[in-house]
Structure to design on (198 residues):
């Protein structure tokens, strides 16, 4: 009798679902007046492309922030981060700049995903005030015009490192992120991650 090992990470769970439901609709969202659907296979391709694109920016135990409304790219970025052994720290898009700065500094994020020009402008203002801590790069989900060398778009990230290996292996058990930092940042906005090491 053949036994199948249970998935140990969220990316593994998602990728296993792709094998079972590759061409089935996974998510549907509205863009303007159109409803756009993605299959499980399409989502997995995007996750792997983003993971490769940020593979030289994210190491195991790194914490990456996501400042965005609820949208498919949030999920894609989160799974890409987890695929590399990192952890994501969410930031509410309605948070004022001072709270955004607090979370970025508290978790020590060097990479930030965000949704739109509106959110990017918050970070621009914070950078001018030198309040973004260790933040080095920003990836914007929307296509925005930006002259800064620290800003890129998700579509550009998906083209980066196309020859890199597929980041599908889960991190070793010892490669745990500093969940205390994630927990403190989440507590600041009134939420708690599911995992809590006390």
């Amino acid at each position: 009798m053949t036994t199948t090992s249970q998935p140990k990470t969220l990316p593994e769970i998602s990728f296993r679902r792709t094998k079972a439901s590759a061409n089935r609709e996974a998510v549907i969202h509205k863009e303007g007046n159109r409803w756009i659907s993605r299959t499980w296979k399409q989502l997995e391709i995007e996750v792997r492309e983003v993971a490769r694109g940020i593979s030289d920016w994210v190491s195991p135990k790194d914490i990456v922030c996501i400042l965005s409304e609820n949208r498919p790219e949030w999920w894609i970025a989160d799974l890409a981060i987890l695929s590399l052994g990192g952890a994501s720290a969410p930031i509410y898009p309605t948070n004022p700049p001072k709270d955004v700065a607090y979370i970025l500094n508290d978790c020590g994020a060097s990479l930030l995903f965000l949704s739109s020009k509106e959110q990017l402008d918050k970070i621009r203002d914070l950078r001018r005030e030198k309040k973004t801590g260790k933040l080095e790069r920003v990836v914007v989900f929307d296509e925005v015009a930006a002259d800064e060398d620290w800003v890129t778009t998700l579509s550009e990230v998906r083209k980066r490192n196309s020859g890199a290996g597929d980041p599908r292996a889960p991190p070793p058990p010892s490669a745990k992120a500093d969940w205390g930092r994630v927990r403190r940042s989440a507590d600041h906005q009134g939420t708690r991650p599911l995992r809590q090491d006390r």
In short: The chain has seven helices and seven strands. The radius of gyration is 17 Å. The helical segments are 10-21, 40-53, 72-83, 97-107, 117-128, 154-157, 179-188.
